[in-house]
Design goal:
The complex is a heterodimer. By secondary structure, chain A is of the alpha+beta class. Helix content of chain A is 27%, strand content 34%. Chain B has a domain of 190 residues: MetI-like (MetI-like fold, Orthogonal Bundle), CATH 1.10.3720. Classes of the chains: A alpha+beta, B mainly alpha.
Chain lengths: 390, 286
């Protein structure tokens, strides 16, 4: 886990006048499952393509195992890629698709190491079958690409990419085209494959849940910048700024003042928290996760507010509560009717304090709760339409 | 709806009669025993036999076949390369180039023919009066060379038009995928891109070949005096009293072109169903 394999050093990328990557610094360890997470246009796919060799950074360096690889073309890199739309070769059957990497590469002759020879046919057969078995497609070799379902094509793409035994597998939103159920199965499957082959996976997605489920390390990106790097737990529990807090899970983000260590003020009241190390009376963003808030009778509450919206979600209710004009989302199993006056109680570990950033004030208010959900749905629809067009 | 059924059937029938009656008539009279094009004198294949003893016609046939094959092959190479070039352009310049590509297709043959003749006259004049001509001791004149250049020129846009859709259907990452797996740029092209677009390339080749066999107008203006193609030869024969040999020849030409076009259409239909099946697989439930 500890050995560094890939390093991006001060990578800057410009396309026309748009800055795609803004001085990225990132290192990736051997055998790590690392996810680049962010909204579309954040630079995550570009980062992946730079590692794969399909794009060159405008400035900055890429190192692989300590060697600078900026000018190494993709076919000479020890990384392989699973593309978003699989990019299978439709004029070949499944076996030949998987065997492609073995057929185009030459290996040293065991009898005379100076001579380069083709991989022997017997070895190709063995390794292709091994790869197909790994993705649960043993016996599918003779079938045509067109006869497979989307999920199966996805597996072929993975088998084809790992047959060369790369040190790193790059995956560009590989589950984007699958339906929800299949996506969940493939998440577990991918994690299993990664552990079985024991190589580094660099995974690109905009799906925060997918990232939390599979990754050892998550790199949250936005607007060409890395916002935060950490384990899934770190990213969820200790978001660095309002963008990360909002993008990963649901968050109420409130203006506050750090009066002194372990004491935060908001709505003119003081609360106990577990954070320290801020300047006295420094303005901060306070993150409170919806599930960390308890609803109590009005008299017992640290704060009181009015319920404005209740949505049943199955396991819990989404309750929107108005606190002096700022609307919070609370997730609770207790039902409160619309219009009820309630009190809330938050334990000290429910507060998370962040320094002010460029994202302060842009996220974390649930005034437009329902319309926000609509927007999410619309985004999804648009994505699908684009997919159809291609 | 049912009311319109019979009239619409009738109308379709009429359209086909008008389209194909002349050809059917031509085929029938190519087997006529007498020389007349009006009176049926019994079945005979004598005109076919005579056709194959006509040295002028056989010479024209040979020229036409060599010309069509050469023009089709060269136009296919050029057109495929051009299509790949267009495909890798940005959307804006691509659509400009495609629009320019389409102009010769809609342009009248006579204009293409005359303008090419003018160009050749000009180019030949310039070449023959230059020192290069003296240096090499060569005088260039219109003939098979100019004919070939003209045919390549009007064939290439058809090839481009037939290869472009295959390129558009490609997965956007397929070239990168081949490189990613260890193929150099050229190997990736040869092993992946070319086989994937091959159906379009072959269709382009066949279309170009039939266009070349078929062409009269452009050949007429660019062939010069030494050589003649089948279509031009038929035209000169018709100016004299018509012999039924022409019927036989036209029948044969029609059958060859018909067979080729049928092949193209069947191939295209097959590819469409295959790609539709693939699309349905990729987007289940949609």
């Amino acid at each position: 886990m500890s050995k560094e394999l890939i390093r991006l050093s001060d990578c800057f990328m410009k396309f026309d006048d748009d800055v795609i990557l803004d001085h990225i610094n990132l290192y990736i360890n051997d055998k790590e499952f690392l996810t680049l997470l962010g909204p579309s246009g954040c630079g995550k796919t570009t980062t992946l393509r730079i590692i794969g060799g399909f794009q060159k950074p405008t400035s900055g360096d890429v190192y692989f195992d300590g060697v600078r690889i900026n000018d190494v073309p993709p076919h000479k890199r020890k990384v392989n890629t699973v593309f978003q739309k699989y990019a299978l070769f439709t004029h070949m059957n499944i076996f030949e698709n998987v065997a492609f990497g073995l057929r185009v590469n030459k290996v040293p002759d065991p009898k005379d190491p100076k001579r380069m020879i083709k991989v022997p046919e017997s070895e190709i057969k063995e390794r292709v079958e091994e790869a197909l078995a790994l993705v649960n497609l043993a016996g599918y070799g003779k079938r045509s690409v067109n006869s497979l379902s989307g999920g199966q094509q996805q597996r072929v793409a993975i088998a084809r990419a790992i047959v060369n035994r790369p040190q790193v597998l790059l995956l560009d939103e590989p589950l984007g085209a699958l339906d929800l159920k299949l996506r969940k199965d493939m998440q577990i499957e991918l994690k299993r494959i990664q552990q079985q082959v024991g190589i580094t996976f660099i995974y690109v997605t905009h799906d925060q849940e997918e990232a939390l489920t599979m990754s050892d390390t998550i790199v949250v990106m936005n607007e060409g910048k890395i916002q935060q790097i950490g384990t899934p737990e770190d990213i969820y529990n200790e978001p660095k700024n309002a963008f990360v807090a909002d993008f990963i899970g649901e968050s109420n983000i409130i203006d506050g003042i750090m009066h002194e260590d372990y004491v935060v003020g908001m709505y003119g009241r003081k609360f106990k928290c577990l954070d320290k190390g801020f300047a006295p009376n420094e303005p901060v963003d306070v993150v409170i996760r919806p599930e960390d808030i308890d609803i109590v009778p009005e008299a017992e509450g640290q704060l009181t507010g009015t319920v404005t919206e209740v949505t049943f979600k199955g396991i819990h209710y989404d309750i929107i509560v108005d606190f002096k004009g700022f609307k919070w989302l609370i997730q609770t199993t207790d039902y409160s009717p619309v219009g009820a006056k309630i009190g809330v109680k938050i334990d000290p570990d429910g507060f998370h304090i962040m320094k002010k950033s460029q994202y302060s004030g842009t996220f974390g208010d649930y005034s437009s709760y329902s319309s926000e959900y609509d927007e999410l749905n619309e985004d999804r629809l648009e994505d699908e339409e684009v997919g159809d067009e291609e | 709806m049912k009311k319109h059924y019979i009239p619409s059937r009738l109308f379709t029938l009429l359209v086909y009669i008008f389209l194909y009656a002349p050809i059917v008539l031509l085929i029938i009279f190519s087997f006529n025993a007498t020389k007349s094009n009006r009176v049926w004198g019994g079945f005979s294949t004598q005109w076919y036999a005579e056709l194959f003893h006509n040295a002028r016609l056989l010479g024209a046939l040979r020229t036409t076949i060599i010309l069509s094959v050469l023009a089709a092959v060269i136009a296919t190479l050029l057109g495929t390369a051009a299509a790949i070039g267009f495909y890798s352009m940005r959307r804006r310049s691509r659509s400009v180039f495609l629009a320019v590509n389409n102009i010769p297709l809609t342009n009248a043959d006579i204009i293409t023919g005359v303008s090419m003749m003018l160009l050749f006259v000009f180019a030949i004049g310039a070449f023959n009066s230059s020192f290069l001509s003296d240096l090499l001791g060569v005088r260039w004149k219109t003939g098979f060379g100019t004919l070939l250049i003209a045919h390549i020129t009007f064939n290439a846009p058809y090839v481009i038009l037939s290869v472009m859709p295959k390129l558009r259907q490609l997965d956007p990452n397929i070239y990168e995928a081949a490189q990613d797996l260890g193929a150099s740029g050229f190997l990736a092209f040869r092993k992946v891109i070319l086989p994937e677009i091959m159906p379009g390339v072959l269709n382009g080749l066949i279309i170009a070949f039939t266009m070349s066999i078929d062409d009269f107008v452009i050949s007429y203006f660019t062939k010069g005096s030494g050589v003649t193609t089948l279509a031009v030869e038929i035209y000169t024969m018709v100016k004299k009293p018509v012999t039924p040999e022409i019927n036989a020849l036209s029948t044969l030409m029609f059958l060859v072109v018909f067979a080729l076009l049928l092949t193209v259409n069947i191939r295209q239909a097959r590819q469409e169903t295959a790609s539709a099946r693939r699309k349905a697989k990729l987007n289940p439930g949609r």
